[in-house]
Structure formats: C-alpha cells, structure tokens
C-alpha cells in the first residue's frame, strides 16, 4: 500500500513537471505582436493604377494618390489621427484608403499588440474583418454586430475579440470622417435639426412702414463709405474708389429686405392684389424675398437676361441661394404708409429645391466689387440677418440629434443583459456569504446550490461571456497605473470589469477565497469534474502535508517571475502567462494549436485524481489575489479550541488541504466551499459537538424523577 501511494505521488509530481514544461516551452504561439508594415506597398496594392503618391502632410495627415494628374484617392494611418487603445492597451494601427467621393477603397492592419486575438485566433480573421469596409461610405453610420436599426449599417464582428474589432471600427470611421471633412468631401453635421416651419396664413393686420421696420418684419442693411473702405483695407483694391475724408459718412447703400410671402409682410408691402398674385404664382415650398435699395445697386449693371444676379444671395445654414433672371420680378409700387422712395425694388423667388425653411434664420449677403483693371476685380461681402417673427410661423420643436455614444457606452449597451444577469449572480453570492451560518445547517441544499452556481460560472461566465480573469489583467492595470491611467481601457469589457470589481471587493472583505471558490470559471470547471470523479469512486491522491505545503510556493514563484518579465516587456510576460490555460479553455474553446489543448486537458485530467491541482500549485492569478489576504476585514469561518488538537476531522475533509494540522485555516489557500462550516454545525459529525451531546444525554439518564407523595 505504501509503495502504491508513493508511486501515485511520483506520478502527480511528474505530471506537474510536464504541465510546467508545456507552459514554458511553447510560448511561441502564445502571443504574436505583428511587426509594423510599410504602408507604401499596401497603398500600391489598393491603387494599382497609381502613378504618384504624395508626401503625407497636413494637420490631419494623409497621402494623396494620383494617376497622372488625376486624384484617384487618399490614404491615411489611423494612429496619426485617432489613437484608441484596444484590448492590449495599445492601439491597432491601420491603413485606410478612400476615393474622392468618400467611399472606402480598402483597409489594412499595419500593426497590433492584441494577445487575445492572436493567442489562437489567426491573423487572417483580423484581415477578413477590415475587408468589409470597401464599398461603404464615410458618411455611413457603421456598427459592429448588435441589433439592426434603420440608420445603421451593421458589419460582422469577430468571435472572441469583440472589444478589439469595435475599437478598430471606431478608429477607422472617426479617422475617415476627419480626413473627409478636411477635404470637404462631407460637411460637419448640425448640432440641432430644425424641422420645416409652416407659415400661418391668417396673420394680418393693417400696418405702416415704421411699424414693420420697428418689429423686424422688414430689415435694413446700411453701409457708409467708411465701412466699405475699411473692408478693402490691406488689399490690392484698398485705394480704388476710396472716399475722401469728408465723404466717409456718406451712404454707400441702404438695402431693405423682407420675407414677402408672410401675409402680414406681403399684403402690407405689396397690396392685396399683388400679394394674391404672388401667392398664386409660388409653387409649393417656394418662398419670396423682397429687396429694396438705394445707393449701390444690388442688381448690378452687368446683369443680363439668362444670367445670375452676382451681387446678392441668400444664406441659410450652409446653403447659398443665388438668383437667376427667371427668379426675379420687379415691384412696381409699395403700399405701406410712410415708406421711402427706392431706386430699385425687386422680388426674388427661392425655389423648392433649396429647401428653404421660413422659420429658420437666414441672411442677405451683398457683394461689393472693386475693379482692379479691365478684367481683374476684388470683392468683399456684407451680411444682414433676418428672423421671421414667432407670430408669423409655426415652428415645430427642434430635434436634437441623438448623441453619439462613446465606444465604452456602446459596449455596455450591447452587454446590458450580461451585466444584469451577472449583477444578480453577485447579489446571490453576497446573500450566501451573509447567511452562510444558516445555509450550512442544510448540507444537501447548500451542496446542490453550490454545484448549480458553479455550473452557471463555467457555462455563462466562462464559455458564453468569456469572463475569465487573468494575471495579465493585473500587469496591464499596474502598467496603466504607472503611466497614463485611463478607466476607458478597463471599461471596454463590462463582464471582466465587473468581475474585477467583485474580486477586489471580496479580497478586501474575505480574502482570495470567494473569487477562487465561486467566480473563477476554470476553478469551477475543475471542481465539478472532481465532484463527478468522486461520485463514480475514482481514487483520489492526497500529497503528504510536508510536500503539499511546499508546492504552494510554486505559484508565488511563477507570479514573481511573470511580474519581473512584465517590468521589462508586457508582451513577453503575456507569452509566459500561457501557464494559465484560461484562453484555451474559455475564450477559444479549445480551438487552437494542439500543445495548448494538450496542456489544458492534462491539467483537467490531473484534477480527476486531485481536486484543483492547478489552483493550488500553479495559478499565478490566485497567488496575486492572495497577496491581499493580510488586509481582509472579516473572518467568518468559525473554529473551536479543539480544532486541530485533538480533532482533525475538518482538516481531513478539506479537499484542497487548506486547513493546517493544528486546525487553523490558511485563508491564502482556502476556496470558501463552506464544507468545514457544515461539519462545524453538525452535532452528528463534529467530535466536540458529539462529545457535548453525549454529556447532555448522560446527564439526562442520571436525573432522578421526582415522586409526589399524596
């Protein structure tokens, strides 16, 4: 029997060595950081007809690509414009090409540092993701995955790397938008959308010139010669037609203008007959502007039939309305009392295709030109504002555009179901901890509840949500904390962020035990496998206490080694962090190179004979979490003076050997399964309780019943 036991011990130790060997001799595929690629050959690949690639330049840097003298497109690097950290904390740099109309022609990955993607997911899948962009427009609203909506174009994500491709999509679209705007391909969107206003047809009151000018129904643009001379100061036309000092205050132009199809303006200004004629003439969604002036002619002496009025235009938002001869009608008379006499009076029609909004502010722009020679001239412009009175039009409520969500907000919105379910699970676990003294008195219920919780941890937190924490997360946090710390990097994965918050809280309150015993998917998978193995009576191997106690140190040595590597190179530390089989088991679901699969399966096979072998001896994450054990606030696992001396029941029953021979619980190694607490409260199993029960029973037997004498 002794020889068999020693053979089993040697087998376990041999397997441990093999697992370490697999972890450290096969890091080559663990993390592949792509070397930076030269963008120029890739530009030639996207533009095979290119004869010239200009220098990358500008505030928004990009290359201009030409075929002879024709511009055929533009190319840029996302890191030059929008550096957005991806899962690794470093951005994915991409080359993006668009044509002069703002259509994507290609996207190529130049450099990335994504351990999650390339720890088993081939680079070809990353390239396939960016191949979805050619043919789409810069102005399109693109979204990775999610529920389909009318105003979004959805592109396929990449399973196992959702955060990374969402970051890539934001980097591509925001960079392309900046480049397109700098080139004038697309215009900046308005902050507020003003719905089309409606002119109120029955608003009319007989009025006079002074009243309509006073309330803003008719506006005035007045220019004196000094104002015009100052506008040309410093130009080649500065002294052309310049006024003498005594002429500076002379009027250069008096221009009055109004929206003539407003009933209270048009009927008073034109008279009923002319106004009715105007309204009959206007087609749906057309409007009329009345302009009256003295001094500088707003028509211009160069106007001819079929031509354009080149001295005036109407501006609204970013649209400019120029008028042709077919848009013009002369005003023969003004019927307003007190109106001055004008040299020029005209009606100009704004046609439907301009989509003029009668309830939105507009401007009349007067262009003043000075001749520099027989052909050359120079002009400047002056503007006057116009707003229709509230009583003249019905303005629907403004439409505020839906604010664009940040990448972090988009991710949390996509994961809201997972966040809610995970929150319920954490609240359930918290309730279990608070009422543990009650639950342990019902062993059957507690065991079934715990096994059910572990199944949820494995299936949902592990395989469905990919919520397996890693020691790499610890190193990433430390590096971010020592450099430019930003919460955005950690908020990009809601499940991981919430689990880290839960781990930090439970470490502070109860130590490492709660996370490792309830929330770690790989630990839960190991425990469930071992429970099944024990159920089918597979023999279990327990190492002698002296050996077991010393093997604890291995995981701390691994943690120290990885931490030292991370100080020099986080990428190198990530390679050696493959001693954790977490990515293979949960993120990639065993879909990767065979050495990693064999390593993960080997650890699970060892676990059949020895519960949580990896957690106890090899896990650097568990070692990192246990470092906070000394600051834990609560110690809710009860012990008696008899525990350890003489009673060793709990120590023998602890399936991960976290109880010392003297009866104390090592909270750095405990996984909070609560089995020892079930025994603690079981008066049929706990020797001190059984002893107390026997004494009570013996006392009852020795009692003499009182006999009444009558």
TrEMBL record:
| Segments passing through the bilayer | 419-440, 452-478, 490-510, 553-573, 594-610
> Signal peptide position in this chain?
1-30
Taking every annotated instance into account, which residue ranges of this chain make up the domain FMN-binding? 86-179
Q: Which domain of life is it from?
A: Bacteria
The record's keywords, sorted A to Z, are: Cell membrane, Membrane, Signal, Transmembrane, Transmembrane helix
InterPro entries (alphabetical) = 4Fe4S_Fe-S-bd (IPR017896), FMN-bd (IPR007329), NosR (IPR011399), NosR_regulator (IPR052378)
Q: Which Pfam families match?
A: Fer4_5, FMN_bind
Name this protein carries in UniProt: 4Fe-4S binding protein
Origin organism lineage: Bacteria, Pseudomonadati, Pseudomonadota, Gammaproteobacteria, Alteromonadales
